[in-house]
Amino acid sequence: MSKPLHWGILGTGRIARKFAGQLGGASRGKLASVGSRGVESAEEFGQQYGALTFGDYDAVLADPQVDAVYISLPNALHHRWTLRALNKGKHVLCEKPIAGNTAEAEEMFDTARRRGRLLVEAFMYRFHPAIGRLIETVRGGAIGDVKLIRSHFTFNRLEPADVRFQPRLAGGSMMDVGCYCINLSRALAGGEPTAVHAAAHLHPSGVDDYAAGTLDFDGRTLAAFTCGMTVEANRTTYVGGSDGYIEIDCPWFCDDTFTLVTGQGDTRHTVRAEATAGLYAMEADGMAAAVHEGVDVPVTEADSLGNMRVLDQLRQQVGVPF
Ligand SMILES: NC(=O)c1ccc[n+]([C@@H]2O[C@H](COP(=O)([O-])OP(=O)(O)OC[C@H]3O[C@@H](n4cnc5c(N)ncnc54)[C@H](OP(=O)(O)O)[C@@H]3O)[C@@H](O)[C@H]2O)c1
């Protein structure tokens, strides 16, 4: 087996459990320790997934077994705990969105550079080979000039106390799921938008609970997205070009396929690129390859900063504090 990466996890919430649950299926990931605000929660998590447990986060950062830290905390805490982890010499995989705003994200990447450590935003869907193939296919010209992109990510299953409803924890639908649509649209368009617009519905808590937006890439490619966390449920993406189009059912949790339609609708191909493991396991393996062999990760610093800038502009337009 190639050299593994030993992980420490901060927080025992929903996504921490998914990540820990899939690490066993990663070929190069081993769970070392977990930290929680509560000792009991840490112990229950440690028993379930097999980790050393701590009743605080700093102890994970001090654990010499830990090479890389997975930050699965609410958005507003990404900045503080990423900085602390980097300053303790750890590599960091930080959940999306990378930070509460662009200034925070810039400081995080500057610190990673100064400390010589890797910092990656955990857009797990980008580690799926079919998403890599989708982006290559579009950028490679298979549908001609890319003109329209529509992407959607909505769901409706949150408890009122969920961190996503809390403005002080940098919640909101654009931060939670709109960020995926923005990320994929930018990747498919192959650049940064020159103008962005958003309309949003504000939840009584003050965050946007559903929103619609557009990204204009120099007047050539136009992208529209909808996102929501109190809305049933559309997760599709369409990419329309001068010579064909692509449909993908759910790029965020891809079923290994997308549909490429060319020849004025006459030819439909199912393009398949199979996952080698669960999404979070592929993400952990991608981090190990990047740390140990310098292999590129699909989500770069420039990508994360570009996404955060768009999120800042859209939130400013709809009056959501950030
Ligand atoms: N990539 C994906 O597929 C994906 C999916 C869902 C979420 N996410 C991202 O992952 C992050 C966490 O989301 P989640 O759904 O796992 O949230 P969650 O279930 O609420 O878990 C967050 C954890 O953070 C810790 N925490 C620390 N301070 C907190 C506070 N003031 N309030 C609440 N929790 C606090 C808690 O762990 P302890 O009590 O153990 O300390 C809590 O369990 C977010 O950034 C989100 O955007 C990513």
Outline of the structure:
Helix content is 34%, strand content 27%. It is of the alpha/beta class and 322 residues long.
Principal-axis shape equals globular
Main β-sheet, spatial strand arrangement: 8-9-10-7-11-12-13-14
Query: In total, how many beta strands?
Result: 14
CATH secondary-structure class of the largest domain:
Alpha Beta
Largest sheet: 8 strands, mixed
The poorly predicted ranges are none
How does the helix and strand content classify structurally? alpha/beta
Distance between the termini: 44 Å
| Overall CATH architecture of the largest domain | 2-Layer Sandwich
Helix share bin: 25-40%
Report the portion of residues in β strands.
Answer: 25-35%
Using only C-alpha atoms, the radius of gyration works out to: 19 Å
From the 3D structure, determine the CATH topology of the largest domain: Dihydrodipicolinate Reductase, domain 2
Series of secondary-structure elements, N-terminal to C-terminal: EHEHEHEHEHEHEHEEEEEEEHH
| Average of pLDDT | 97
Q: How many separate domains make up the residues? A: 2
CATH superfamily of the largest domain: Dihydrodipicolinate Reductase, domain 2
Number of helices: 9
Q: Bound small molecules, which ones? A: NADP nicotinamide-adenine-dinucleotide phosphate
